[in-house]
Design brief:
By secondary structure, the protein is an alpha/beta fold. The termini are far apart. It has twelve helices and eight strands. The radius of gyration is 22 Å and the shape is globular. The chain has two domains: 1-33 and 254-370, no CATH class; 48-237, Alpha-Beta Complex (Spore Coat Polysaccharide Biosynthesis Protein SpsA, Chain A), CATH 3.90.550. It is 52% helix and 15% strand. Keywords: Glycosyltransferase, Transferase. GO terms for molecular function: glycosyltransferase activity. Residues 49-198 form the Glycosyltransferase 2-like domain.
Length: 370
């Protein structure tokens, strides 16, 4: 009969793996017999507003506007830059040919989006960050998916970083593709997404995670959130460890606040939305990391008599060493980078939980000028 320690270790291992292993495999199994429905181009390309919220973006905003205009979209196209309390960015954007909405004071991204959607000239709106670069035809792919009946928003495909970070984004894309095959995905990314004005409700003033809120709010009201992997955008990595830590913990803490505000969707009677929320977000952000930490404690207590425990601890030592090496600029082999990324994300989860429990919700975060 298995010892109590072995049973506990297995239970903690399964719990730690729910978000990154169990849920993704379950979604893939459920979606395996469903194929991506081909989305034809509309008979006539509708008019579109590309909404770019911007703060301290004088160095990139002109290139962003040029990138949008050269994306190949065949319908009427408006580029609307919402300069969030930033007259310098407004001046550069205006000179580059964009329509500009200058807010007198900084409101934060969520409220800038509210004002931009209200001011947009067209009912189909693509949201894209100022520092992201759209691959050719990304707008057309998004719009083709957005005009499908019942679709309120569409997520594009984000490529960011290298090594472990890039592998993580590809993993996320695989999950979103399978979720979308089942009917809807909550994996919206504010770097590139599209929304219908008729499906839009203003984002509340206490919400910093605009994309997560938009997805859950639309799903709650019966709209589907689609996923279009051909709508590609690249975004440079944020770089320095302290900046990455601040952003990721802020996003995770803000995400927990969104889930608290939308906690009625956690009810299993909500079906697919509840399953995605538990599996893709909540368990991965809370119970999973806590279980992982507890499993480390069990392994440490069992290390003298268990080879498995020693291997488990050694793997974490390798991941920690890879993290330190990467921070110092040392080139780490891909397997080490992947292990380091997984370990880093588990640590980030604790930072995000701490920020949430402290009520540390930053609506107008500090950011470097670009």
């Amino acid at each position: 009969m298995a010892s109590k320690t072995s049973v506990l270790a297995v239970a903690l291992g399964v719990s730690a793996a729910v978000g990154h292993v169990v849920y993704p495999l379950a979604v893939a199994a459920a979606a395996r017999r469903r194929t991506d429905e081909p989305v034809p181009a509309p008979a006539q390309w509708p008019a579109v507003t590309v909404l770019v919220p911007a703060y301290l973006e004088t160095g990139v905003i002109a290139a962003k506007i040029d990138n949008v205009r050269k994306n190949g979209y065949q319908g009427e196209l408006e580029v609307l830059v919402v300069a969030d309390g930033d007259p310098q960015t407004a001046d550069v954007a205006r000179a580059a040919g964009a329509r500009v909405l200058l807010l007198e004071e900084r409101h934060g991204k969520s409220q800038a989006l509210n004002k931009g959607v209200a001011a947009a000239s067209h009912d189909l709106i693509v949201i894209s960050d100022a520092n992201s670069e759209l691959e050719y035809d990304a707008l057309a792919y998004l719009v083709s998916r957005l005009v499908v009946d019942g679709t309120g928003a569409v997520a594009g495909e984000k490529l960011e970083g290298t090594g472990g970070e890039l592998a993580y984004w590809r993993f996320e894309s695989w999950i979103k593709r399978n979720e979308a095959r089942l009917g809807t995905t909550l994996g919206l990314d504010g770097g590139l997404c599209a929304v219908r004005r008729e499906a839009w409700e203003p984002i509340p003033a206490d919400i910093s995670n605009d994309d997560f809120w938009i997805a859950l709010d639309q799903m709650e009201r019966g709209w589907a959130v689609g996923y279009e992997p051909r709508a590609l955008m690249t975004e440079p990595s944020i770089g320095a460890f302290n900046l990455s830590w601040e952003r990721k913990t802020r996003v995770l803490g803000g995400g927990l606040h969104v889930m608290w505000r939308k906690r009625r969707l956690l009810d299993p009677r909500r079906g697919l939305v509840s399953a995605e929320l538990w599996g893709h977000k909540l368990w991965r952000s809370t119970v999973g990391p806590v279980s992982h930490l507890a499993l480390l404690g069990v392994a440490a207590a069992s290390a003298r008599r268990s080879r498995t425990a020693r291997v488990f601890l050694a793997g974490h030592a390798v991941g920690a060493a890879a993290l330190v090496a990467q921070e110092k600029g040392v080139r780490v082999p891909l397997p080490g980078r992947v292990v380091a990324q997984v370990l880093y994300l588990q640590i980030v989860a604790f930072g995000g939980m701490r920020r949430y429990l402290r009520g540390d919700r930053v609506l107008r975060w500090e950011k470097p000028a670009r």
